[in-house]
Every structure is written in structure tokens, then in C-alpha cells.
Amino acid sequence: MNFHTLLTSTVVILLGFAQVPAHAQKNYGPGVTDTEIKIGNTAAYSGPASVYSVGAKAIKSYFDKINDEGGINGRKLNFISLDDGFNPAKTVEQTRKLVEVDQVLMVVQPLGTAPVTAVHKYMNSKKVPQLFVGSGASKWGDPRNYPWTMGFIPDYVTEAKIVAKYIAKHKPDGKIGVLYQNDDLGRDFNRGLAEGLGARAATMLVAKVSYEITDPTVDSQIVALKDAGVDVLVTAALGKFASQSIKKVNELGWRPMHYLINASSSVGSVLKPAGLGNSVGIISSSYMKDPSDPQWQKTKELEDYMAWMKRYYPAADPNDWLVAWGYSAAQATVEVVRKAGNELTRENIMKQAANLDLALPMLLPGIRVKTSPDDYFPIDQMKIMTFNGTTWELAGEIFQR
């Protein structure tokens, strides 16, 4: 090769490199820099569902741990969590702030069926990931129509079908009454019960009574269900309303088989306010380890969990599974971000979230987080459990959606 040819080749090569953009190895969406990733959240720090705010507090505390360890690929997680009071109108306002002012990369575990519904279409129109929604509504698993929204916990239809199978087996002549929240939570749960019972629904489902989240109590609804001759009570209620239902059943001296939805099975946030003695014998279902269950006490998973809580969230109740819920959602989020590498765009975040297969330390053995582009229900397995006055006792096999 002569000098002229060598020079020409070198110039061509150098020009080729010059045409490669400086950021080719990194591709950032809104909210991302070389040192930071902004992640948004809305939660009920006030209002009727404020007990669930521990989930958001746990997420922040877990992100604090990750940040102390250097972040993810050198980027710190900036968790911007805003109070919406479980008020859909406030959720709209706060979510718009997160997206349009704070310009977060994604929103993680926004809380509540009605609040998240209020921004469901908005988030998808803006193409902002709405990951691991803190609600079991079945609408969060609809990738065809809402590809930017993904659930986390088993949906209410799945849970209700599991409950229906259990009731049909253990109390086949039971008269079922349902206390339900008058929104998608209640509608999904009622649909799942009817589908799970099949032909038996016509004779076994004898009463359904709703409440609004603005109601002061559900005492009158519980009285109405007792008066209807119900001997199997299904409480599809959240937070304080679940606690009130347990208290009122006890005050009435009523002894139905009582099923409490998983979202209200927290010992610390729901059963303690209702009275642990009043809660003995209540049935629920779970996909997570109960931190108060003796069988997990000496495991590495629980020891790591308690060590994290002691350092990063010391105000938390160690027996409150809602803390473990937030902890697990935070771990799933970290996995998504790690898988995304340096391509931290909203599109890639959704791609990675839709291709998960992992075991999380606070999930029950055998239960995994699994997603695909056609399956936006990360967790769809549960086990039945009964409260013994101190902790929940697991029984039977894992039920699958």
C-alpha cells in the first residue's frame, strides 16, 4: 500500500468514527443522566388508605440501600413519591407533575384501583411506564390496549377464583355474602367469585353489599349481611374498612367463615387495629412470606430483610407484610433497571419489565415473578392461609391463575 492510499484509508476511517455520535453507547430517556434516574410514585400518605403508604416508604428505603452501595451502574435512584390522599383527582394532578414537571423515567407502584384508573389512559398516551401497580385490578394486565401499564400482585379475579374453589370444597352448602368496595376492586372480585363457583353461584351467593371509600364505617353493611343469613363472609375491603368489618362481626357475636382479601391481610396495619383476638380463624391467601411466621425466622432471606429494615426503615412494623410488598416491588424495579443497562429509555424499560423471570426473597417458595410481552401479571400464584391469633398459617398447594 503506498502512502497516498494509506492516507486516504486513514481519513475515511477517522471520518467514519467522527460520524458516530458521542452518546452511541448510552441512550437516555427523560429523567436519566450519567448520575441519576428519576422514578415517580403516587401513594396515600393521607386519607382512608394511608396504611398502605408503608409500601412506598419501603421502596424509598430500599432505593436508599441501593444508592449507598453505589447505585445502578453509578446512577443513584431518585424516588419522587407524592401524596394523593387516595383521591383520583389529586392523583391526576400529582401524576401530571411527575411526568411533565419532574420528567420521571417511569412511575412505580402507584397505589389504588380508582386513583390509578384516573391516570391509566394519560400514562399510556404519554408512553410513560406505569410499573407494578399497587392494586389487583385485572385491567393492569392488558398489554394489547395498555402496553405501558403493568400490575404486580395477583389480580382480584384470580384471587376470587381461588377463594371460590376453597369455599366450594370446605363449605359446599354455604351462603356467601360479599362486602365490597364499589369500584373495580369489588367488581373484579365479584366476577371472579361467580366464575369460580360456576353453576353453584346461583344458590351460594345470597347477598352483596358495597361501600364507598368516603363512608365513615361499614357497620351497617355487616349487619345487613348477617341479617341476610350469610354464613360465609367475603370481605373485599381495604384498610380501615377491613378492620371495621372484623370488629363488627365480633361485636355481633357472629361466627361466619370469614375470608379477607390478601390486600388487607397485614397483621400490623389491619388485624392489630381490629384486635388480634377478633381475627382468629380468618382465612386469606398470600404469595409472600409473613415476617412474623416462625418458619422463616432463621432463613437468610428474612435475616437480610430484617437487617435492611433495621438500618433503612427502623420505624416500620417488622410484622407488617405491606413493608415486604414494597421491598419486593423495589427489588423488581432494580432488576428492570439493571437489565436495561445504558439504554435507559422508556421503551426499553417496558421491554425489560415484560421479560422477567426471577425469584424474590420475600415471595413464598415456588412463586416467581414472571412476565412476557403477552403476560403483564408478574405474580399469579397464591396459597390459602388462616390466622391463628399471632401469625398466618399456610396450608395446601400453590394455586395458579
Description:
The longest helix has 20 residues, at 321-340. The protein is globular and about 65 Å long. The strands form 5 sheets. Strands 3-2-4-5 form a 4-stranded parallel sheet, sandwiched between helices. Strands 7-6-8-9 form a 4-stranded parallel sheet, sandwiched between helices. Helix 5 crosses helix 6 (184-197). The chain contains 13 helices and 15 strands. The termini are far apart. With 401 residues, it is an alpha/beta fold.
Any descriptors?
4-stranded parallel β-sheet, 13 helices, alpha/beta, 18% strand
Topology (elements, then pairings):
Blueprint: H1 3-18, E1 27-28, E2 36-43, H2 53-68, E3 76-83, H3 88-101, E4 106-108, H4 113-126, E5 130-131, H5 156-170, E6 176-181, H6 184-197, H7 201-204, E7 205-211, H8 219-227, E8 232-236, H9 239-251, E9 257-260, H10 267-274, E10 283-286, H11 300-312, H12 321-340, E11 343-344, H13 346-353, E12 357-358, E13 369-370, E14 381-387, E15 392-400
